[in-house]
Amino acid sequence: MTQQPFGGFPPQQQYGFPNQPPAQSKDSGLAVAALIFSLFGLIGLVSVIPGIVLGHVAFAKARRGEAGGKGMALAAFIVGYLMIILYAIAIPVVLSIAAKHGAFR
Description:
It contains 3 helices and no strands. It is an all-alpha fold. α2 (48-64) packs antiparallel against α3. The longest helix has 31 residues, at 70-100.
């Protein structure tokens, strides 16, 4: 066995606040998927519903500390609900305009 000169290297000091554990990256994949589904609601109403459901599940997991992405999950189901409101307003307006111009004759 050989000895290291000078007794080895001292432990490196971490930046940040003292006695704070290093930041851990929590998985927020469910929140990302929820937001993607909700945003694809602009293309069609079908993807909004999974976006809202996944958003609520991801938000609940984030509140319990099981996953990250709490803000993204909140945004996902808010965007999903806004898409449903948008469709609830836009579909009758488009149908009434189409009926007014004789599209259903």
